[in-house]
Specification:
Layout: E1 2-5, H1 8-13, E2 17-19, H2 27-37, H3 39-44, E3 52-55, E4 58-60, E5 71-75
Parallel strand pairs: 1-5
Antiparallel strand pairs: 1-2, 3-4, 3-5
Amino acid sequence: MDVLYFAWVRERIGLPKERVDSEAATVADLVAELSAREDRYAAAFADLSALRVALDQELVDFDAPLAGAREVAFFPPMTGG
């Protein structure tokens, strides 16, 4: 699946997106796998309350199942204006 990173998440990880092969069942499982890779991932995912996630461009919670998802995007909460 494609994993996209936006705003400061992209800055901490150093990539706008990457292709990830994962056996993760949920978004939280994917986050755990990514966080275990390197310190930069651990830093980006250190505070999940500061992140939002979307599967195939639909906002979901971190306990959402990944089955069938083609794209996962991580980004900070947006503010209106």
